[in-house]
DNA sequence: TGATTGATGAGCT
DNA sequence: GCTCATCAATCAG
């Protein structure tokens, strides 16, 4: 457990690639939220890539607005938005003016699990962080945490490298979940062996 | 298990 | 007003 805490953040170049590449590369990495000297940690097990101007389902498809402004900037920052009653967290990928991002859909709880249970008001560990709205609730992530630099170790939200090497054959690709446009693009990625991915499964794309 | 539906709030298509 | 990158409860089988 202590070796997890010595992990370092990933460099900005890690995020300055196309979003599907970043989405796959983020699997297995550690999402860390610091609050009151406590660290909530989860291992990323499910992501989705959004392609910006070529992708009808992306928030940036309509062009720059006040809400999606952060997507048009540098990679490696959080994009937190609310949907219905809940929040979702993306990591900005690509280059400035190429508004692409990676949605973190599910993590495996690693540390401060009791606090996550309190935040979610449940004791079911498998149901704490297996969805984008759920993991934000468990981690206490809200819209005011939009635009945080996850490559800066002093940030409130950071992503750490991990000792777990996720190989390509451990990753399952499928279509994205919960969207009404561009449903069929194979842009959802998850660790096939994880029991912490979100419940609704779509047909895998081999 | 899988499908369906209602609650819910911010941003703008 | 209408649209959602959601969730939890409900019901059919």
- Please report the distance between the alpha carbons of the first and last residues: 35 Å
What form results from the Cα inertia axes? globular
Radius of gyration, Cα only, in angstroms?
Answer: 16 Å
Structural class: alpha+beta
How many beta-strand runs?
9
Report the mean per-residue pLDDT as an integer.
94
Helicity range of the residues? Answer: 10-25%
Taking the sheet with the most strands, its summary is: 9 strands, antiparallel
What is the string of SSEs from the N terminus onward? HHHEEEEEHHEEEE
Amount of beta strand:
25-35%
Number of helices: 5
Low-confidence stretches: none
Entry keywords:
single chain, 206 residues, alpha+beta, nine-stranded antiparallel β-sheet, 5 helices, 9 strands, globular, DNA-binding
Report what the structure shows:
By secondary structure, the chain is of the alpha+beta class. The chain is 16% helix and 29% strand. The chain has five helices and nine strands, in the order αααβββββααββββ. Strands 1, 2, 3, 4, 5, 6, 7, 8 and 9 form a nine-stranded antiparallel β-sheet that branches. Helix 4 packs across helix 5. The radius of gyration is 16 Å and the shape is globular. The model has no long low-confidence stretch (mean pLDDT 94). The structure holds a DNA duplex (13 and 13 nucleotides).
List the helices and strands and how they pair.
Layout: H1 2-5, H2 12-15, H3 19-26, E1 30-35, E2 38-50, E3 78-83, E4 86-93, E5 100-111, H4 113-120, H5 132-139, E6 157-160, E7 171-174, E8 188-191, E9 204-205
Antiparallel strand pairs: 1-2, 1-6, 2-5, 2-8, 3-4, 4-5, 7-8, 7-9
Helix pairs in contact: 4-5
The structure holds a DNA duplex (13 and 13 nucleotides).
